[in-house]
Amino acid sequence: MIKVLVVEDHPIVREGVMTVLERERDIKVVGAAETAREGLRLAATLRPDVVLLDLKLPDADAFDGVASFAREGRSIVVFTAYDSDEDVFRAIRGGARGYLLKGSPAADIAQAVRQTHAGESYLSPRIAAKLVKGMTETRGRAGLLSGRERGVLRLVAAGQSNRQIAETLKISERTVKFHVTAIFNKLGADNRAQAVAIAAQRGLLSDR
């Protein structure tokens, strides 16, 4: 059972998300908070696996909350209406494993929780598409990754798991893990979300 803490200051949004997650058999909402301070207090006692965190809270800078929960070792899914590249990059660099837009389908919310709990990253499809489309390849940096690694990275950016990537590319899951590790090392990334953010900034997500 995946334990989730919801930190959101708008009651209607908070209750809606809780209702969505409580319908899932493998997810349990263990608590909810309106502020970052209350959320941190609850996290210390409830020990959630995943924190669904609003990016804009009344008692915390937009990214202080992300950093605070990251220091506690929680898997963080940012839940926000803001989709600017800068917000995405800062949240991920601050320690968020997922970036989910408000208004996302119920299935996407549950998927974000499951993937981040499994140690993977999750970006709302609209965000992933925006990053890929908005970045042009920087040829001088493209050589940093091999063609196969760039192909794997584009699938990571699209939200595919290692198993899905293996099926798409018709290679073994072990080979995918090898490529993902190599990508992390070359980009200096700690997780999949960071790798996507760094690659997008460097223009490495283009298929050209």
Protein structure class: alpha/beta
- C-alpha geometry: globular
Instruction: Report on the biggest sheet.
Output: 6 strands, parallel
Per DSSP, the total helix count is 11
For the record, what is the CATH homologous superfamily label of the largest domain?
Response regulator
Q: What is the CATH class of the largest domain?
A: Alpha Beta
CATH domain topology of the largest domain? Rossmann fold
- The largest beta-sheet arranges its strands as 2-1-3-4-5-6
Helix content: 40-55%
How many distinct folded domains? 2
Q: What is the H/E string?
A: EHEHEHEHEHEHHHHHH
Number of strands: 6
Q: C-alpha Rg, in Å?
A: 17 Å
| Uncertain segments | 135-142
Averaging pLDDT over every residue, what do you get?
85
Q: Span from first to last CA?
A: 42 Å
Reported CATH architecture of the largest domain: 3-Layer(aba) Sandwich
Strand content: 5-15%
Explain what you see.
The chain has 208 residues and is of the alpha/beta class. It has 2 domains: 2-124, Response regulator (Rossmann fold, 3-Layer(aba) Sandwich), CATH 3.40.50; 135-201, Orthogonal Bundle (Arc Repressor Mutant, subunit A). It is built from 11 helices and 6 strands. A 6-stranded parallel beta sheet has the order 2-1-3-4-5-6, with helices on both faces. The longest helix has 15 residues, at 173-187. Mean pLDDT is 85; it is low at 135-142.
